[in-house]
Amino acid sequence: MAVTRWVDGLRSAGVAAGIKPSGALDVGLLVAERPLTWAGAFTRNPAAAECVNWNRAALGRRARALVVNSGNANACTGSAGRNTVEATAAATAGLIGCRVDEVLVCSTGPIGVPLDARLIETALPSAACSLGAEVEDFSRSLLTTDTFPKVSTSSASGASVIGVAKGAAMIAPNMATMLAFLGTDADVSSDDLRAAVDWAVDRSFNRLCVDGCESTNDSVLVLATGNGPKLGPQELRDGLLEVCSDLALKMARDAEGATKLVRVRIEGARSETHAVELGRAVARSDLWRAAAHGADPNWGRVLAAVGAVDRGLVVGTTSVAIDDELLFAKGEPCGLLAVAAAAMSGDEFTVTVTLDQGDAVAEVLTADLSEEYVTLNAEVTT
Question: CA-to-CA distance for 189 and 172, rounded, in angstroms?
Fold first, then answer.
C-alpha cells in the first residue's frame, strides 16, 4: 500500500492486543493534538453496540481521541459491554491527558461475545508510543474478513480529506458492518460538518448493499482539525463524498467471497429516493446476485426485484440492459443473451433499469453471491 499520511494534527497507530487469535493488529488509536470538531453517522439498528450508543451521546462535544478494536463487536453483551466501553475510554483519556467524554470508541467483529477491556488497556501504552502520521497500521487494525485495507484521499479547495474504512459483509443500506474514519484539515463549523457527513454518507455508504444485512456497529466518524483553509458547505460535501464513495467502492470490490462488482443503475425514476430504493431492491436480491456469480443474464430476476418494491411499475415502458446490451424493452424480450453473459463474465458490469416515470437517476453498488460467501458466514463464530 502506498504511504498515506493523516492531515496535520492527527496521528495514529495500530497494535496487536490479542483479541484476534491470529495475533494480527486489532487495536487502533487515533489522536488529535487538541480537542476537535467532529461528526458521525451510525447504524439505525436498535440492537446497536454500546460503543455506538457512547459515540451518539458524545455528538455535539469535541473529540480528542478514537480507539477502535477488531475481532469482537462488543455488541449485545449487556452491562459488561457498557463497562468495557467506559473502561476503554477512561484508559485512553488517562494515557493522552484528556477528558473521558472526549474519547470515541468503536468495535467490529462477532456479535454477542464478551470483550475483555484489559486486553485493550494493556495494549494502549504501546499504541501511544507508536503514534505517527502514517495511516497503514491503523487501517490494518480495523480489518476482520477484509482482504486489504481501504484508504482514500482527496482535496477540496486546498483542504485535504483522508479516509480509512473496513467492511466486507453485513453490508446494507443504513451503512453496513463497516467502520470509516475520516480526517480533514478544513476549517468548518460543527453544523456544516454534521450536514456534510449526512449528505456524503447518504450518497456513498448508504448506496452500497452487498447482502442486505444491517449491522450493530456501523459508524462513520469525521474529525476536522481546522488547520487548513475554510471551506464552504458544498466544497466540504464534495470533498467528503469523493473519499466516502471511493471507500464504498473498495468495500464492494472486497465483499466476502465476491468475484465481481455489480453496479445497479436506475434511470427515469420519480425521484432520487425512488431510484435508490429500486436500486437497493435489485442489489439485495439473492437470486440476482447468484445469477451474477454465474454470469447468467437472468434479467427477469432484476425486473421482479424492481416490481416487488414499485407496485406501480409499468412493464411496457420499462427496459433492462446489461452493460450495453438491451435485453428487455417495451414489454418484450430483446437483445442477445450471449453478449450479456460475456459482459457479466468479467470482474465488473452494470445492470441498468430504465423507467418512464421521471428524470431521477441513482446507482447502487453490490457484488455477486458465491459459494465462498456462504462458507465464510457458516463458520464466522467458530
Answer: 30
Q: What is the domain-level CATH number for residue 18? A: 3.60.70.12
Q: Do the domain assignments include residue 91?
A: yes
Residue-level length of the chain: 382
pTM (whole model) above 0.85: yes
Question: Residue 212: what pLDDT?
Answer: 56
- Give the SS3 label for residue 169: coil
Final residue belonging to a domain, choices 228, 253, 278: 253
Would you state the pLDDT for residue 313?
A: 95
- Clarify whether residues 89 and 192 are in a common domain: yes
- The grid coordinates listed for 68 are 477502535
Q: Which residue segment(s) compose the domain that 303 sits in?
A: 261-378
Mean of the per-residue pLDDT values for the chain?
92
Grid coordinates in use for 111? 456479535
Domain end, chosen from 208, 230, 253, is at: 253
Dist. CA 89–CA 100, nearest whole Å: 6
C-alpha separations of 59 from 33, 62, 194, 195, 222 in Å: 19, 8, 9, 13, 11
Residue 358 belongs to domain with CATH number: 3.10.20.340
**CA angle centred on 222, ends 188 and 89, rounded to 5°:** 120
Confirm whether 177 is a catalytic residue. yes
pLDDT of residue 2: 67
Question: Domain check: are 206 and 268 in the same one?
Answer: no
C-alpha cell at 19: 483479541
Do residues 240 and 269 both lie within one domain?
no
Measure the CA–CA gap between 27 and 122, rounded to whole angstroms: 11
Catalytic residue, candidates 77, 84, 145, 177: 177
Per-residue model confidence as pLDDT tens digits over 77-89: 999 999 999 999 9
Please give the grid coordinates belonging to residue 275: 431510484
